C-alpha cells in the first residue's frame, strides 16, 4: 500500500487534517475528535507513522509513561507516482468523497438546515498566482481544522481537485 493509499482512509484523513494545524499528542487529538475511539485512534496513528506520513516531534515522560507528540512528516507523499498509480489513487479519493456524500444523504439530518453543495469553476492563473491562491486557501482554512468548542459548530468536509484544463 502506498503512502497516499494509507492517507486516504477517512479516519486517517481526519488525523492528518488535525495534525496539519499543529503537532499534537494522541490525547489532544482524542479530546477534539471524540468520535474516534482511543484504540482506533492509536491503530491509525501507527499506520500513519509506519507509512512515514507522520513523525515524532518530541517525547516526554509523564507519570511513568512516554507521551509522544506527532507532526506531519516532511516527506509525506511519493514524489512522482505513475499515471496508473494516480488514477488508482484518484478513484480511491472519489470513492471516499462519494461515501461521505452518501452517508450525508442517508442520514436523518434535515438537509435544508445544513450548508452543503458542490461546484466547479475554471479560472486563469500564472504559476505564481496559483501558488499565492493555494497559500491563501491554506491560511483561510487552517484556523478551522480543529474544533473550537463554539456553540453550533459542526464538522464539514471540503474536498478539492485542482487540474489544469486540457484543451481538446
Commentary on this structure:
- The structure is a single chain.
- 8% of the residues are buried.
- The model has no long low-confidence stretch (mean pLDDT 85).
- Helices cover 45% and strands 10% of the residues.
- A hairpin with a 2-residue loop joins β1 (54-62) and β2 (65-72).
- The chain has a two-stranded antiparallel sheet with strand order 1-2.
- It has 168 residues and is mainly alpha-helical.
- The chain has six helices and two strands.
- InterPro entries: ArsR-like_HTH (IPR011991), WH-like_DNA-bd_sf (IPR036388), WH_DNA-bd_sf (IPR036390).
- Pfam families: HTH_20.
- This is Helix-turn-helix domain-containing protein.
Any chance you could write out the topology, listing elements then pairs?
Layout: H1 3-7, H2 10-21, H3 26-32, H4 38-50, E1 54-62, E2 65-72, H5 83-106, H6 127-141
Antiparallel strand pairs: 1-2
Quick description:
The chain has helices spanning 3-7, 10-21, 26-32, 38-50, 83-106, 127-141, and strands spanning 54-62, 65-72.
Short descriptors:
single chain; 168 residues; mainly alpha; 45% helix; globular; Helix-turn-helix domain-containing protein; WH_DNA-bd_sf
Amino acid at each position: 500500500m502506498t503512502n497516499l493509499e494509507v492517507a486516504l482512509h477517512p479516519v486517517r484523513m481526519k488525523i492528518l487534517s488535525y495534525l496539519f494545524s499543529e503537532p499534537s499528542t494522541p490525547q489532544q487529538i482524542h479530546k477534539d475528535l471524540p468520535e474516534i475511539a482511543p484504540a482506533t485512534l492509536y491503530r491509525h496513528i501507527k499506520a500513519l507513522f509506519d507509512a512515514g506520513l507522520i513523525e515524532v516531534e518530541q517525547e516526554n515522560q509523564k507519570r511513568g509513561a512516554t507521551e509522544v507528540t506527532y507532526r506531519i512528516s516532511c516527506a509525506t507523499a511519493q514524489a512522482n507516482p505513475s499515471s496508473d498509480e494516480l488514477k488508482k489513487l484518484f478513484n480511491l479519493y472519489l470513492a471516499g468523497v462519494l461515501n461521505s456524500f452518501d452517508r450525508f444523504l442517508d442520514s436523518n439530518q434535515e438537509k435544508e438546515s445544513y450548508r452543503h453543495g458542490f461546484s466547479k469553476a475554471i479560472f486563469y492563473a500564472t504559476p505564481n498566482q496559483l501558488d499565492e491562491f493555494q497559500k491563501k486557501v491554506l491560511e483561510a482554512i487552517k484556523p478551522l481544522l480543529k474544533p473550537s468548542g463554539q456553540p453550533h459548530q459542526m464538522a464539514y468536509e471540503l474536498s478539492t481537485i485542482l487540474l489544469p484544463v486540457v484543451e481538446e
